[in-house]
Structures are given as structure tokens and as C-alpha cells.
Amino acid sequence: MLLRPGRLALPFRGVASLLLLGPPALAGQDQSARTIVVRDSITGRPIPSALLILPGMPAAFTDPEGRLRVAIQPGSRLTVEARQVGYTPKTVAVDRDTVEVSLRPDPVRLPELSAVGAQGNGCPADDPGGSVVRAALANAERVRALELAYPARHQVEHMTIRVPAKGPGRVVRRDTVTERTRDRPTYAPGAVLGMGRVTDPFQFISVADLAGQAFRESHCFRYAGVDSSGGTELIRVRFQPIAGMTSADWTGTLAVDPISGLLVRAEVAMANIPATSTVESATCEVTFGSLGPGLLYQKLLICETRNRQGPYARVVDGRQVLKVEFERRIPGS
Fold it and tell me: What are the E-state strand segments in the chain?
């Protein structure tokens, strides 16, 4: 059974906070400056933290007024794609001083569960839960864009508990470390499971990895129903390695809030563990926090490894983000 933070009762402290460092990522004040405004097509209200993608430029986010100023070369012809969770993406030309982008709401629609055909890689050919899957992956795309455009330092409280085959477990590590998003290893098929070491035997995926091409090409995503076990209804999206993948890899479930379309938590387990590995099973649960409208980060990660051999039958590893410091300021924050 996958672990939940409440059951572990790990004595983590503090609440994640947000510190923004460095100058605003705004365009210079010159004749090539353009202002992009993103609004709801029905209400006309600005959409804060909308993800903007311009060719050849780092991804960026709108401020609380739905605006972003960018600098472009005079005479250049550019387009901008605007995205936000819960809306249909839209691409328009950046051909005037102020460019208005109206996004149409795209609420998460719950389908009926049904059998689907299979493609050559074993993924559904016609997923009835496409709207749900798109909402889940849109979260991952935003986290990935945030990490690439605005590298950050996470102050992380780290705790490791080792449990022998007989007797009580003991805390072998408890400290606070700084981790940089730019230094985080990225997912690669076939490189998930290490050499079976008791400490850090596998490479955990981040939510940003789910949006990467390598992960998308090696996993199937599908709608998996509604989960109301925690008292709140959440939509479940299941992912698993494609048919034919034999190396150890991650399978799991993403829980999406049906109102906001935002990720709430993720539960994952390792599949295809070879019989020669000292690792018998590995499970993790991630709880997400919010830095602003639609801006998520992995707030709490708890993993449990069960070993076939060695001095420790189980190893429980927990990481909680206490503080996030961006290397440069997000516009409007």
C-alpha cells in the first residue's frame, strides 16, 4: 500500500514559503516592446500565471493582471501560444503593441469508463478521458516551463528511517539541504533503478518529467475514475510503461481537482523490478503545493523501499520543501 504523510507521522516542520530574488523578467523600455494580455473569453477577466510560449524565447508567465511585456526584434514576425489549466490553448500573432489573447474555458469532463483499442505501443487508441489526461499533463507542462524559465533553490528538510528485519526503525538522517532545480536529473528510460544500494537506490521522477518527451513516449496515460476515499472527490489519471518495456520504470496515479484542474497528489510504484535486484518494491507519494495561480511545486515526497536482502528490510525517505527561492523574479509576483 502506498504511504500517506499522515500515516508516517514524520516530524516535519514549517510551511513552504516563497521568496522572489533578482530583477523582474520584463522587456526593456524601447520601441520593440510588446505587451501580451491574456483574458477569459467569457468573462473578459485577466488570467494570471498564464504560460506564454514564444519561439526562440524562454517560456514566461503573465502577472496578476494577465500581462507580460516582451522585447522583440523590429520587423520580426512572431507568434505566442497562451496556456492555462482549465482553458483551451490558443496561438496568435504578435503583430501590434498590445496583443490580446482570449482563452476559452475547457472544464474537465468526466467520461464513462470503457474499454478502448490499443495502438502499436499498447496505449489507448481512443481515450474517452482525453480531457482529464490533458488537464493532468498541462500541470506537468507548467511545472517544467517554470523550472526551465525560472530556476530556483529549494530548502528541503530530509529525513531517512531504516527498519531492520527485526526490531524498531531508527532515524539515520535528518537535516536541511539546498537543492537546485537546474541540477535535478531528468528521467531516462532504463536508468530508473540503480545498483540496489540501500541509500537512494532509484531515481525518482519529478512532475516536470511527465511533460518530457522521453517519459511521454515510454508511458501510456488514461482516465481511471473518481477517488472519493479522502472525503474530497478527485479525478484519477493512470500512467504506466508502454507494452514491451522490460526495464524498471514508474507506474502510478495522478489525482486532479475537478474544479480547478490542478494536481493535488501523485502516487507511484516501481514496475518491472528485475529479480536480481536487492530492491523488492519501491513506492512514493507526492503532495503538491502552490506558489500562485496554477503554479505548482512538489511540496512533500515520501518514499518507501523494501529490500530482498541486506541489513535493512525497509527504508523510508521523506523530503519536505520549506522554502523556494527563485534566481530571478516572476513577473508581477
Answer: 17-20, 33-40, 51-53, 60-61, 67-71, 78-83, 90-94, 98-103, 152-164, 170-180, 219-227, 234-241, 249-256, 263-271, 279-292, 295-307, 312-326
Closest to 225 measured CA to CA, from 129, 125, 124, 134: 129
Which residue's entry shows cell 482549465? 86
User: Which DSSP string corresponds to 161-187?
Assistant: EEEESSS--EEEEEEEEEEEGGGPPPP
Amino acid identity, residue 187?
Y
Identity (one letter) of the amino acid at 52?
L
- Closest by alpha carbon to 157, among 175, 171, 172, 170? 175
pTM of this structure:
0.77
Domains and CATH numbers, the chain: 5-18+146-326 (2.50.20), 31-106 (2.60.40.1120)
Which tens digits make up the pLDDT trace of 119-161?
445 676 555 556 778 888 888 888 888 888 888 999 999 999 9
> pLDDT for 292-306, tens place per residue?
777 888 899 999 988
**For the segment 54-63, what is each residue's pLDDT rounded down to a tens digit?**
888 878 889 8
Half-sphere exposure at residue 269, Cβ-oriented, CA atoms within 13 angstroms = 10
The answer to whether the CB of 283 falls within 8 A of the CB of 266 is no
Rounded to an integer, what distance in angstroms lies between the CA atom of residue 171 and that of residue 224?
37
What pLDDT shows up at residue 82?
93
